[in-house]
Amino acid sequence: MNILCLNTCLKQSYVCLIHDDKIVENVIEDNVQHSITLLKQIDSVFSECNISAQQLDYIAVCVGTGSFTGIRIGLAVAKGIANALNIKIIPIDTLSLIAYNTQNMCQYVVMKGVGNEYFLGNVVDKKVQSMRLTTKDELDSLLTNDTIICSCDNLTNDFNCKIEYIKMPKMNKIVLDNLDKAIDSNEVKPIYLRLSQAELQKGLKNDS
Questions:
Q1: Helix (H, G, I), strand (E, B) or coil at 12
Q2: d(C-alpha 51, C-alpha 9), whole Å
Q3: Measured on CA atoms in the order 196, 68, 92, 153, is the torsion positive or negative?
Q4: How do 88-92 and 108-112 pair as beta strands?
Q5: What is the reported pTM?
Q6: Could you give the CA distance from residue 141 to residue 143 in angstroms, rounded to a whole number?
Q7: How far apart are CA 163 and CA 166, in angstroms?
Q8: What's the CATH fold of domain 2-93+169-201?
Q9: Are the CB atoms for 152 and 46 separated by under 8 Å?
Q10: Among 58, 55, 57, which Cα is nearest to 47's?
Q11: CB-hemisphere CA count at 13 Å for 153?
Q12: What is the domain partition of the chain in residue ranges?
């Protein structure tokens, strides 16, 4: 089985190819040019496994939350490949991906947003039950010294609780466990917990 996995929702540009029992990753740290690097990363993992795109069975992609532009780039590439090859997409939400990579049983998964904003997911058994956009003050009110949160951001100086830092959440395990969630590309929708800057400038407000 061959599955191409894409995550452009975070600071890193992450590409992974699941090729039978082999996992090949290509990661660019602190990448703000997903549109320039992503196709080159995809070509790189194909070359390493000596296969072509036509041999793909599925494509998995992080659909958000996270970088507004990053979400759109990842989805555009995933849908383009899926439509061209007539294969299905496995959508993965970013907060669930982070929670899936934890070693501890965290209660919350947290991602930094813009300014004083944070993306928050409630976690039970490493699965995100709900997610929303919140502020630091609101998040502080939920946390105690014994609360465990997980994050791909370094939050050590942000909150007084137990924090598990996951620098680069890997996609292979969550993807293989969600093969039954594969859907047609036209059914795949992005998860935007925060409006774009252009929408905010028009006076629209984020949902609470």
A1: coil
A2: 26
A3: negative
A4: unpaired
A5: 0.91
A6: 6
A7: 10
A8: Nucleotidyltransferase; domain 5 (3.30.420)
A9: no
A10: 55
A11: 19
A12: 2-93+169-201, 95-165
Sign of the alpha-carbon torsion through 128, 139, 32, 103:
negative
From CA 196, how far away is CA 83, in angstroms rounded? 27
With beta carbons less than 8 A apart as the criterion, state whether 25 and 18 touch.
Answer: no
Other CB atoms within a 10 A radius of the CB of residue 78 amount to: 24
| Tens-digit pLDDT string for the chain (208 aa) | 999 999 999 988 999 999 998 999 999 987 667 888 999 999 999 999 999 999 999 999 999 999 889 999 999 999 999 999 999 999 999 999 999 999 888 999 999 988 889 999 999 988 899 999 999 999 999 999 999 999 999 998 899 999 999 988 999 999 999 999 999 999 999 999 876 555 555 555 665 4
